[in-house]
Structures are given as structure tokens and as C-alpha cells.
Amino acid sequence: xxxxxxxxxxxxxxxxxxxxxxxxxxxxxxxxxxxxxxxxxxxxxxxxxxxxxxxxxxxxxxxxxxxxxxxxxxxxxxxxxxxxxxxxxxxxxxxxxxxxxxxxxxxxxxxxxxxxxxxxxxxxxxxxxxxxxxxxxxxxxxxxxxxxxxxxxxxxxxxxxxxxxxxxxxxxxxxxxxxxxxxxxxxxxxxxxxxxxxxxxxxxxxxxxxxxxxxxxxxxxxxxxxxxxxxxxxxxxxxxxxxxxxxxxxxxxxxxxxxxxx
Length: 262
Description:
The protein has helices at about 25-40, 55-70, 85-90, 120-125, 150-175, 175-185, 190-195, 205-215, 230-255; strands spanning about 10-15, 40-50, 75-85, 95-100, 105, 110-115, 190, 200-205, 225, 260. It is α/β, with parallel strands linked by helices. It has one domain (about 10-260): 2-enoyl-CoA Hydratase, Chain A, domain 1, CATH 3.90.226.10. Strand 1 (about 10-15), helix 1 and strand 2 (about 40-50) form a beta-alpha-beta unit. Helix 5 (about 150-175) crosses helix 6. The chain is elongated and about 70 Å long.
């Protein structure tokens, strides 16, 4: 992905707003983070975050891209409103996290759910005939309740991802795994409490995040706001339609498809 960036040193500002997996797509943001990593003109990056999280796989991919970027350049995460679940998983890859005093942080945990409409289908006289190669091939089927083994398998997946989430946060924030596990109840914390718990580095506004980026990157206050290059069809849809898709899409997808969510 080619970015049009001036030759003089800049601080790139990347806005991460909305649901991860819909508004924040890996096929758009990962190439952009890679381009920022390779650009000689970009000396530091500020992630402007307001997101409640989203898909596990997309969150993990975005975090990997941010981690690679942070390994070579200063990255400061700024939380303007919400940095929860998958968004926090991504944000804690930054060297520093600055949060507005009234922001909410955390929601460390994993969620998996899917619709079961077998009773409704029975009332409507609808049946589903299934041929499958193995017992678990139609796991998460919406036309029947899950079996005991399927529930155990689903919980094992949730537990495995949860353990990875906890260990990742512990390593990134320099905390004991047991301390993070105690916080991993799925709840969010007011920024002031998150500061005391070690989940953020300091309280402040966006200007403070810029100041930190200037200090860490040894670059003047020259900002460039960078956005991913969206497919032509999404540009044609316009701002309103794109926003509508970002808002409605995640809710429809969550109800129809079995997925793991941070």
C-alpha cells in the first residue's frame, strides 16, 4: 500500500473508531500499518481509539501489525472514549497509553454465542436434514440446541483465547498474569481506576498523546492523518451508507454467524 507522505518527519495519526471486523477491517488497516512501518518519513504514530472491540481473529491480526510497527517506531495509543476488549488487545501493543479521564478501559475477556431457533422452526414446520462427515462438523448449528460435547468444545476455545488475552496484556503492561486474571472479569474500568491498575500510563487529552509521540520520536509537531485506502465500492456508497453498514452490520453478523469476540 503506497502512502503519499511528505519527506520531512511526521507523526502519523490513525483513527480506530467502531467495531473491529466491520468498521475496522484487517484487509484495510494491516497494509496501512505496514506502509507506516516502512515509511522513512513517519517517526511516530498515534492511535486514536474509540472502539468496544470485535472479532478475535481481526483483533489479533491488527495487534500483530501494530506490534511490528511499535518494534521499530514509537506508538502512542490515545483513548478518547472507549478502549475495550479487542480494542484494548490492539491498543496495549503501543509503548504508551494515554486516556481521557472519563474514558472506559478494559473488558478483558472472550465471548462466543450463536442463535438457536429450533423452537421457532418447529412452530413454522421447518426441518433441516443434515449429512455430515464427523460429529462436530455442524457445531454451532442454529437449527438445534448444542450437545454437551459441543458446549465443552466451545468453552475450551473461549478459555484458550482468554488465557492468551490475559498473558498478552500481562506482558505488554508489565503486570503479573495473576493480577491481570483478577481484572479479566469482562468489566470495563473508569480511566482513573485503569491508571491505578496499570492498564494505562497516564490521563490526558489528544495533545498529551502528541507530546509523547514528539518526545519518543524526536520529531516536531508535524501531524499527518492517515486513513486506509478503501475499495471503490465503499467509496461510492458514501459516508452515510458506510456508517449505516458499520453500525448495523456487526449486529446482524453477531446474530447469524458463530464467532469468537473480544
